[in-house]
Write a structure and sequence with these properties.
13 strands, alpha+beta, about 350 residues
Length: about 350
């Protein structure tokens, strides 16, 4: 086998995407991993320049020319490239000159896709943040509830000893406020019972949520359904999943109701399945994805990192508990809530593993 064919045979079996350019900076070799990454056949890429393959913020062709002239390599980290099919992906890539007989004969570009790794890292961060927040809240609840109980008991004893019954109005205020704070702490902790897993149809859950959402907005928001009827039964707590989905839908209703845009308020509820999906550190064979999409103004950039924290809200009168509770419920189902947001298109997706595991907290 000629050396060049031998090299191509080796490159064909790599999982790293590899492109080779000649001295005119035109593609003369593409391995299968690069075909898959760029979503186009190698035969269509041969003879084309890099600008025909993808675009990025910086002029890639100019950098390749500099590398060829200077016979130097360079690396780009976490750069976004836009493919010809309109898809944008995040990659690391390295460009290295090929030297034969002390002369440059071309360039090699190695591309490593990062979207999956970045998503896994983001999900691990979300799960870790949620667990830390829940641990903090449990500790806070313990420290707050104990003195509240003593305060309430003291107010009740004081009310019995007061000679003037009209003065009991003040002790009643103390008791009522102590009860209100206790309820607030319990709400921040989310559901006070572990999920009761049973076989359920996810469409019964989302249809119940849609019905409640339409009733609450009194026809002012258009609800659209896009369901996959082939989704099998999954294991979950129907009541808690309804609460989690309803919290997301209520947020969407409030977002589109406050949207000054001219487009009519619209919410789309969609169900799909995803196969071989990693959530955090666990890989699941089949995951149910329930997404709620609205055409509201989107999530403010300064709230993206803290959106699922309790008591964080983008509305002046919001409690900031809805998303936190929803995330807690889905976490108890070993799932996760993700979101993507831009003005006019905000999507929250509840990812729920179809299989049931027995290590629920």
């Amino acid at each position: 086998m000629p050396p060049e064919r031998r090299h191509h045979h080796i490159l064909d079996n790599l999982t790293t995407a590899v492109l080779m350019f000649d001295t005119a900076l035109r593609v003369n070799y593409v391995n299968p991993a690069a075909e898959a990454l760029l979503a186009v056949s190698g035969a269509r890429l041969l003879g084309h320049t890099v600008e025909d393959l993808f675009t990025e913020a910086e002029a890639t062709g100019a950098r390749l020319s500099e590398a060829a002239v200077g016979e130097t390599s360079y690396t780009k980290r976490e750069t976004s490239i836009r493919l010809n099919n309109g898809e944008t992906i995040t990659v690391d890539y390295v460009v290295t000159p090929v030297i034969n007989n002390e002369r440059i004969s071309g360039l090699i570009m190695e591309l490593q896709p990062l979207d999956r790794l970045l998503r896994i890292s983001r999900e691990e961060g979300l799960l870790s943040s949620q667990q830390n927040t829940q641990a903090l809240l449990r500790g806070l609840a313990h420290e707050v509830k104990n003195p509240l109980g003593g305060l309430r008991g003291a107010a009740q004893l004081l009310a019995r000893e007061l000679p003037d019954t009209e003065l009991q109005e003040y002790t009643n205020i103390i008791i009522e406020e102590a009860d209100r704070l206790r309820t607030l702490v319990d709400t921040m902790l989310g559901p006070n019972r572990a999920p009761k897993f049973s076989e359920l149809n996810i469409h019964e859950v989302v249809e119940r949520v849609r019905y409640l959402g339409e009733a609450e907005c009194q026809g002012k928001v258009q609800f659209c359904r896009d369901y996959d009827p082939s989704i099998p039964m999954l294991s979950g707590d129907s009541e808690q999943l309804i609460q989690a989905c309803l919290n997301i839908v209520r947020n969407a209703v409030q977002a589109v109701s406050n949207n000054p845009a001219s487009a009519p308020p619209k919410i789309i509820i969609r169900t799909r399945t995803r196969r071989q999906l990693t959530l955090g550190t666990r890989r699941h064979r089949l995951v149910c994805a329930v997404s709620v999409t609205d055409n509201g103004p989107g999530v403010a950039p300064d709230m993206v990192e803290s959106l699922f924290f309790p008591m964080v809200s983008g509305r002046p009168n919001g409690s900031g508990l809805g998303l936190s509770i929803a995330q807690s419920i889905i976490n108890r189902h070993h799932g996760l809530i993700e979101f993507n947001s831009e003005p006019g298109n905000t999507e929250f997706t509840l990812l729920i593993p179809m299989e049931h595991t027995d290590d629920t907290d």
